[in-house]
Amino acid sequence: MALADDISVLSQAPVFSSLSGDALRLVAFGAEKKVLSAGQVLFKEGAPAESAYIVIAGRVAIYASGSSEPESFAGPGALLSELALITRVERKFTAVAEGDLEVIRIARALFRRLIEEYPQVARVVEDRIRENIARLAEEATAMQPRFA
After folding, report:
1. In contact, 79 and 52? CB cutoff 8 Å
2. Which residue in 16, 44, 26 sits closest to 109, CA to CA?
3. What angle is formed at CA 108 by the lines to CA 114 and CA 115, rounded to 5 degrees?
4. What ranges in the chain are assigned the alpha helix state H?
5. How many domains are contained in the chain?
6. For range 97-113, the mean pLDDT
7. Inter-residue contact 64 to 91 (CB < 8 Å)
8. Residue 10: which domain range?
9. pLDDT mean across residues, the chain
């Protein structure tokens, strides 16, 4: 896949969608591509997360703790383990290649460099965190009657 194709895939991920071409090129140059075959594990739940992944081609099966059936699937453009870009966390699920899979691995160190060179990225991350917290609060509030 050409650099332009990688940049196109990166620009589909919400955290990167508003970045300039130069910022996207920095990520594309610094990121690592991985190719997996059907059944190969991309990462396991509970493992330290030092990078995020964007699916280029194929589909990833997402397994929740102890489940033998996938909880969901992620396809091209999906960003997995976004929080790992900004802080030390453990993987919250296991990700397995459903078929042939190609991903871009974005290390936390590369993301920090991106923020240093393009400070506006920090605002995008802050906005995404705020949106995620608001969504979680809404979901928790909606579940409150179940526990009353």
Report:
1. yes
2. 26
3. 20
4. 3-12, 21-30, 108-117, 120-143
5. 1
6. 95
7. no
8. 3-147
9. 89
Please state, as a whole number, how many other Cβ atoms lie within 10 Å of the Cβ of residue 60: 26
The encoded tokens of residue 140 equal 């928790």
Whole-model pTM over 0.70? yes
Q: Which residues contact 75 (CB under 8 A, 6 or more apart)?
A: 55, 58, 59, 60
Interval 85-109 mean pLDDT: 94
Q: Which two tokens stand for residue 93?
A: 């699920």
Q: Are the C-beta atoms of residues 96 and 43 closer than 8 Å to each other?
A: no
pLDDT, tens digit (0-9, with 9 covering 90-100), for 28-62 = 999 999 999 999 999 999 999 999 999 999 999 99
List the CATH number of the domain containing 82. 2.60.120.10
> Can you state the percent helix, strand and coil of the chain, rounding each to 5?
40, 25, 30
